[in-house]
Design brief:
Elements lengths: L13 E7 L8 E7 L6 E10 L2 H8 L14 E9 L11 E4 L9 H4 L25 E3 L4 E2 L11 E5 L3 E3 L6 H4 L5 H13 L6 E5 L3 H12 L4 E6 L3 H8 L4 E4 L8 H9 L5 E4 L4 H10 L6 E4 L13 H7 L2 E4 L7 H13 L9 E6 L3 H9 L5 E5 L3
Parallel strand pairs: 10-11, 10-13, 11-12, 13-14, 14-15, 16-17
Antiparallel strand pairs: 1-2, 2-6, 3-4, 3-8, 3-17, 4-5, 5-9, 6-7
Bound molecules: nicotinamide-adenine-dinucleotide and zinc ion (ZN) (2 copies).
Nicotinamide-adenine-dinucleotide binds next to helix 1, helix 4, helix 5 and strand 11.
Length: 387
């Protein structure tokens, strides 16, 4: 596939190819779109490569709000700044950047606090628009607007992103590794490292061994966890998990009448120190909470469940067990502060990224990435945008 069919020019709209979700749950349609120039505090990015995260699948399937069509999905990517709007000082044309769904303005109370990564100036919402000027930068060839996704919309050869959602990175990082830091791997590693604060010698249980769960394992390994228990329904994930330091496996489909939490309690003599839900099911959050040790056990919710789903916990158990339940968006990381640390740890050969990339495909075959993830065949499928 040709790269952008028009020559890009600052201040002008760019015509390029994008994979548009025209109908929930149906294959994306590759079509020409117009990408407007960036407005104030925005940059227009040429996407080099992007990868598919399960959150794209969750919103691709969603028929009701906040699902919306036509939309350009994709939020795990790396690109090069093509042009910037007014009042942009943080990045300039030619910079290599990682867009992240979670903003970091660097100035609000939350950005200044060590306790939070939830910026309150720009904020995180599942919105169909750009975060500040609430409008779209995409139109189709009939002049109709196309909606944004998670402030990134990387399934397009060009996209527009707010500067609060952009992290400049060292250009030496290969693009098919850099894109992993835009969501999945950073989220998992951060959930173990910053949200949970896993300590050396501790026992960790991870529900769901996709890229997020395996990145939790990688983060826990880097923190010195001595035992990492992986729970999944797909036995293929167990062999893969060994590469990421998973030491024990529980196939939740083969536990019979025994709840998984009881299996984990029996394995650990009372429960794991840290449990992570990396699937996106309220019932598994409850199972994870039940699997962690009384007194100090901590459960971290990372998976994204359907909108409106509720947790049911016994208030007596919450009171008597003294356990902690936390949520973790982007692994508790502040993108501009922490992504450069992960880049350095990769370049220093501490953080493993390579094994997460199980497939690489051309943009024209983007729908194949959906099949691979849904069939449980892949961890991350990198999609090269100029092919
Ligand atoms: P994935 O599809 O690659 O992996 C999910 C894994 O869960 C698979 O191995 C699957 O076999 C397993 N699984 C499914 N049902 C299960 C069950 N009942 N019990 C045990 N295992 C089960 O997905 P991913 O890309 O790794 O994403 C995982 C979750 O993390 C998704 O919900 C995604 O939306 C969410 N996510 C959250 C954040 C965040 O900031 N909190 C960021 C990225 C992704
Ligand atoms: Zn994601
Ligand atoms: Zn902020």
């Amino acid at each position: 596939m040709e790269a952008a069919s028009c020559i890009s020019s600052e201040g002008q709209p760019i015509q390029c190819k994008a994979a548009v979700c025209r109908k929930a749950g149906e294959p994306l349609v590759i079509e020409d779109v117009m990408v407007a120039p960036p407005m104030s505090r925005e940059a227009r990015i040429r996407i080099i490569c992007t990868s598919l995260c399960h959150s794209d699948i969750t919103f691709w399937r969603m028929k009701d709000a906040p699902g919306i069509c036509p939309r350009i999905l994709g939020h795990e990517a790396v690109g090069i700044v093509e042009s910037v709007g007014e009042d942009v000082r943080e990045v300039e044309k030619g910079d290599v950047v990682v867009p992240v769904f979670l903003p970091e303005c660097g100035e609000c109370e939350d950005c200044k606090s060590k306790k939070s990564n939830l910026c309150s100036t720009v904020g995180f919402r599942v919105s169909p628009w750009m975060p500040r000027q609430e409008s779209s930068r995409f139109t189709d060839m009939k002049g109709q607007p196309i909606y944004h996704f998670l402030f990134v919309s990387s399934f397009s050869q060009y996209t527009v992103v707010d500067v609060a959602n952009l992290t400049k990175i060292h250009p030496s990082l290969p693009p098919n590794r850099a894109c992993l830091l835009s969501c999945g791997v950073s989220t998992g590693v951060g959930a173990a490292w910053l949200t949970a604060g896993v300590e050396a010698g501790s026992t960790v249980a991870i529900f769901g061994l996709g890229s997020i769960g395996l990145a939790v394992a990688e983060g826990a390994r880097l923190c010195g966890a001595s035992r990492i228990i992986g729970v999944d329904l797909n036995p293929r994930k167990f062999e893969i998990g060994k590469k990421f330091g998973v030491t024990d496996f529980v196939n939740s489909a083969e536990c019979g009448d025994k709840p998984v939490s009881q299996v984990i309690k029996d394995m650990t003599g009372g429960g794991a120190d840290y449990c992570f839900e990396c699937v996106g099911m309220a019932s598994l959050v409850q199972e994870a909470y039940a699997s962690c040790r009384k007194g100090w056990g901590k459960t971290v919710v990372v998976g994204v469940d359907k909108p409106g789903s509720k947790l049911t916990l016994s208030s007596a158990e919450v009171l008597h067990s003294g356990k902690v339940l936390m949520g973790s968006l982007f692994g508790g990381l502040k993108p501009k502060t922490h992504i450069p640390i992960l880049v350095k740890r990769y370049l220093d050969k501490e953080l493993r990224l390579d094994d997460f990339v199980t497939h690489e495909i051309d943009f024209k075959d983007i729908n194949r990435a959906f099949d691979l993830l849904l069939e449980g065949q892949c961890l991350r499928c990198v999609i090269w945008m100029n092919k």
